């Protein structure tokens, strides 16, 4: 059985020279233009309440505050809105911050390019997809190969898979991030499998390809990346498991025990973290959970280190999510930046 699928066209992001990007903001700069509203909170201070927001575009995000009229503005805005902002770039605790004079939801969106507001993978998505298919073709088990074929030939699912982000913010949080992350995880698994030839390589590779499939439903991503209702209530591990079961049900005499092994990899790939549906209970599941975490953390570490490097620093800012600073030890053939790096 062959594995093949037409590569759907992905949008190509180009920079509009007539607008000011988040990455180009400097203290003292006056701004007037559209941004995506990626975070919003009404907070108290001695003079009443102020609006704390984050404004974003495809180059990153910047913190912003509105001191006057915050309580009147707050009910009229929602996260994900495109907003017209007038204000000035300042600094707060050594970071850029926009002091907003006026902020309004933009009603007329026809003149805007939606690609201006969300970052996209910088790598060649078609090349990533072909590399993923090439590894899938190395699977020898006929049932697993047919299972993979169901996915690779499902045009609607493939289109969503190539566009979806790999995460909301911490890792691969950009259009095309899911397929990029998946290839990284699969390559990690293949490399580890060479060290342990007794494990079931075909099961491992199949589970790695499918492990984050549910993220095509977990996220919504038009102007900002956020969780869908089903993403929050069910989660990508269960959603991916459901889709793989659908594929298996359409294959005559698919071995139930083999399907259980693949399903376990999907449901346990978050390892021993609190949001894991199951902890790894097979050697293949153990490998996948470690390979997944490694690729996710490497993407996030690289982003934080490159942000520090752009500022001429060896140490990153304190990263609250992992509770530490990160050190730039240098590297070779690494990217100069990652999508949406400014924050």
Give a brief rundown of this model.
This protein has 343 residues and is of the alpha+beta class. The protein has helices at residues 70-73, 125-136, 142-152, 155-163, 177-195, 201-210, 215-218, 229-233, 236-249, 256-268, 283-310, and strands at residues 30-45, 48-57, 60-66, 82-92, 95-105, 219-221, 225-227.
Keywords:
343 residues; alpha+beta; OB fold (Dihydrolipoamide Acetyltransferase, E2P); Hypothetical protein af1432; 2 domains; two-stranded antiparallel ribbon; 18% strand; elongated
Q: What does this protein look like?
A:
The chain is an alpha+beta fold and 343 residues long. It has 2 domains: 22-112, Nucleic acid-binding proteins (OB fold (Dihydrolipoamide Acetyltransferase, E2P), Beta Barrel), CATH 2.40.50; 125-300, Hypothetical protein af1432. It has 11 helices and 7 strands. It has helices at 70-73, 125-136, 142-152, 155-163, 177-195, 201-210, 215-218, 229-233, 236-249, 256-268, 283-310; strands at 30-45, 48-57, 60-66, 82-92, 95-105, 219-221, 225-227. The chain has a 5-stranded mixed barrel. A hairpin with a 2-residue loop joins strand 1 (30-45) and strand 2. The model is unreliable at 4-12 (pLDDT under 50).
């Amino acid at each position: 059985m062959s594995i093949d699928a037409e590569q759907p066209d992905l949008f190509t992001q180009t920079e509009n020279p007539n607008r000011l990007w988040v990455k180009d903001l400097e203290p003292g700069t006056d701004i007037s233009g559209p941004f995506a509203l990626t975070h919003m909170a009404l907070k108290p201070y001695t003079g009443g309440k102020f609006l704390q927001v984050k404004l974003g575009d495809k180059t990153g995000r910047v913190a912003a505050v509105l001191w006057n009229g915050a309580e009147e503005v707050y009910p009229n805005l929602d996260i994900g809105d495109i907003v017209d902002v007038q204000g000035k770039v300042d600094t707060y605790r050594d970071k850029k911050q926009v002091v907003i004079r006026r902020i309004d939801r933009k009603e007329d969106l026809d003149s805007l390019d939606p690609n201006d507001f969300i970052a996209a993978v910088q790598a060649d998505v078609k090349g990533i997809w072909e590399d993923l298919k090439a590894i899938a073709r190395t699977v020898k088990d006929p049932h697993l190969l047919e299972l993979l074929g169901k996915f690779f030939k499902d045009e609607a699912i493939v289109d969503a898979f190539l566009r979806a982000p790999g995460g909301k913010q911490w890792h691969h949080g950009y259009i095309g991030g899911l397929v990029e992350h998946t290839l990284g995880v699969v390559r990690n698994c293949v490399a580890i499998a060479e060290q342990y030839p007794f494990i079931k390589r075909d099961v491992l590779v199949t589970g790695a390809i499918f492990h984050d499939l549910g993220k095509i439903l977990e996220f919504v991503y038009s102007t900002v990346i956020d969780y869908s209702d089903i993403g929050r209530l069910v989660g990508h591990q269960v959603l991916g498991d459901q889709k793989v079961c659908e594929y298996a049900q359409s294959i005559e005499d698919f071995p139930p025990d083999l399907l259980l092994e693949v399903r376990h990899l999907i449901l346990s790939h978050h390892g021993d973290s609190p949001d894991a549906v199951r902890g790894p209970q097979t050697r293949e599941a153990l490998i996948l959970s470690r390979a997944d975490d490694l690729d996710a953390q490497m993407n996030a570490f690289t982003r934080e280190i490159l942000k520090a490097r752009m500022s001429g620093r060896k140490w990153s800012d304190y990263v609250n999510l992992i509770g530490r600073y990160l050190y730039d030890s240098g590297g070779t053939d690494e990217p100069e930046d990652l999508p949406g790096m400014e924050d």
